[in-house]
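Input for the complex:
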Amino acid sequence: MRKKQKQGSRYRFGILGLFLIGIAFGGCEAEKDFLEESDSGKQMRRDITFEQFKSEIGQPKFSTKFSLSGSDLARSMEDFEIDTTNVKALETNFIVYSMKLEPKFVSEVYKFYNLLVYKDNGDEIVKQIMEFKPTTEITGETEQEIYNYLQTASKQIIYSTKESNLTTFCVKTEIDMVCRCYGHTVFECLGCSLGWTWRIRVITVPCTNGDEGGGPGNGSSSGSPIGGSPGDGGGGGPSSTINNENEIIASPVVPGLDGVIAPIEDPCVSLKKLFENDPLSPTIKPNIIPNINILTDQASSNLNNEVGYYFSKDSNGLYASSDLIIPQNSDNTVPIKLNNNTYAVAHTHTALLYSMFSWKDVYALHELYRQADAAYKTEITLLLVSKECLTCATVNVYALKIENFNAFRYKLQTDLNNVRTAGFTDDQKTDYASKTFEEKFNLGLIGDTPALEKLFLEEFSSFGLSLYKANDDLNNWNKLTLSSIPLNPINEIPCN
Amino acid sequence: MKNIFLLFIILLSINCNSQTINIKDKNGTRSNGAYYKDIDQELNQFEGTYQLITNNGNDELTMVFKKHTEFYMTPYTEDVLVGEIKYKKDGVVLFDNLNKINLNLPNKYSHDICGNTLVPAVGIPPCDDCLPNQYRASLIFFGRQNNKGGGIYLQKIIDNGVEKIKVLILYTNSIVYDNDPIPVPLISYGEYVLTRIN
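Predicted:
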């Protein structure tokens, strides 16, 4: 009897299994080559395999992974991988291969990327990454609302291997939604019994002869920049290079900004220079000690607002400092003003908050470095003058130096790439990251300077950032590093 | 029996992937799949509408706070307190977003104020009149009106039997590029005491 029940059970499971497999295969009907008649004219569109694409383009080792490099800081962090399951050959009087790209870092949830590959009239392969970015914050919840919303998404080219074709090639976009059934390839939702979600698919379609632009390589078109044809809502984007290697790029390694690798001076040397003074030619040396003394006095007086100084170096190498920066009445913070002559900013923190650099301070250092002339990058410093606590007597002078900018910006980009702040302004994103970082200091650390230093170093010291503390006489600096001794968590290594 | 055992294993593995963390224990990191829960219901004390009217009624600061539980946005879930502000200065309403509090925004961080950090009495900012076991809320103020944001710290107080809330607003540095204008906060930084009106 039990055996029969077991057999019956197996039979039922077998039927169920076959039923599910049937549903899956029934829904996963393979797409076939087809002709399409769109508003813009007659187009051929073939769904092909990635292998077929490689064969057609004559690149059997076409990499599926891309790392970007270039002058656009935000972009140069991104790695992409091709979704090889969704390759389209788009044909008019030329062939463009279009495939979806998955970014390694999802900076904004509702951004999409396509890779376009085609041959120009010199038979050279051109690769372009197109970004589709919604123009407003997404508000829809239903399928139709999201679809309608995406129709307003703008798009732009963010990278191209060849700039020459950017202005002569026109594409349009189509956005459709397909159902994704968990555990299976994309297919119609009908019959999906395993749980499903809508997946938005963005495809690019080349313009036909009647549209603006023209084919790649015609070289004479006065059409709109790519992605910027009327009605598309897009615009031409910055061009740069795609660095594709036939290997997995584990972490992005990019050159210094604008392709310039700035010489890195020993931070100790750079910091000690800040204290140097030449009384006969005051502008030849930085001589920031008088400024630091004023900030120390201000920090000691328990002001509720910050104060600070900007330090600059002109094209002749002459140093200058600003007047004392006092925030506007309604503000408690010193704005960090950036221009390519600013090499250092010093500011105080009030005793209302913790006596350590904030995340936003760190971000300011990043921006300071990014904006500075290449020749001055090694001098870029952020200084903090801060009383240990409201009732404490000690005022600490800290300096932050960048030792590895690539690692540093990798860290900041990772902190900034948060779906909760997708579509927010940079300031709002940094406010979010700043508050998250501040959580570390919430648990009763008033006046516990080594604990604050430890928390800061734990967060940033592995990412190319080094922390220094000036000695009381302001004639030397100590590099702070993490120690393995719990009762003495910070090593102070004097600069020679 | 075998299938029941398999089901048990599957359910167990699903359960093992979720982790509930008290928001009091947040440490500046986030775990994928975790639920940051207001286990001790500390955020509830701040819910409601609070108001401060000065300058013969010409200045008004009204804040409304509402708690949302189990707000999920990949990769984790959290309980959050959201807030909106009405601000009037010299008789002019500079902004009034109080009605936004009732919108069911998919992203709770789209509110002007949002967060769930709890600060103990001995935490920062220093608190003179906090009870030893009292927690304050530390929230993000996005400053969407003029792109000048920072933090808002809330402390619940009872003043002669009247529910009030101490609000400390502290901004974070603005980063200003070249000759761009420096954002100026519409609401001055500092401490405000608001009385509960609803």
